[in-house]
Amino acid sequence: MTDPIPSIQFFEGVPEELNNVSLRQNRQTGVRSVLMTFESLKSIERFRSYTKRFANALLLTDQEGSISIEPSSVQFVFGGSEGDDLQRVECRFEVDREDHWERFMRFMRRYAEANGMAYGESGSDRS
Fold it and tell me: What pLDDT, on the 0 to 100 scale, is given for residue 125?
């Protein structure tokens, strides 16, 4: 039996392609925040959102199972000459428990490996 390919879904059965992820930790509270950026959403492009059930959460799936995350915000950023071209979608959520953070990081390592993404630290400030 092969392990399932890690996936991220807004709509059940429609895996999305993550383009970037930013991880931050508040030094005072220790709460970690995640910002996932998608340059496009397959569920919107294919209008499949009308035929698939909305998960009411971001669904991260890998060999350990599924993680259901309720985003604190989802922002659609539009541009182009008419201002109606979807440029990216930013999904933000916080992780306050250490065991949840460790599980999220195991998922991200698997997702990155399966999708040719690299992990690196930026020199930017932490919130």
Answer: 44
* Amino acid identity for residue 5 in this structure: I
Residue that is written with structure tokens 């930790």 in the block: 25
Question: 7-114, superfamily in CATH?
Answer: Photosystem II Psb28 (2.40.30.220)
Q: Give 4: exposed, middle or buried? Use CB within 10 Å, 0-12, 13-18, 19+.
A: middle
The segments of the chain whose pLDDT lies below 70 read 1, 45-56, 120-127
User: Diameter of the chain by CA atoms?
Assistant: 49
CA atoms within 13 A on the CB side of 14: 20
User: d(Cα 34, Cα 22) in Å, to the nearest integer?
Assistant: 6
How would you classify the pairing of strands 7-11 and 14-16?
A: antiparallel
Determine what percent of the chain falls in helix, strand and coil, rounding each to the nearest 5.
20, 40, 40
The residues spanned by each domain of the chain are: 7-114
The Cα–Cα gap between 39 and 35 comes to: 13
Task: Say what the pTM is.
Answer: 0.76
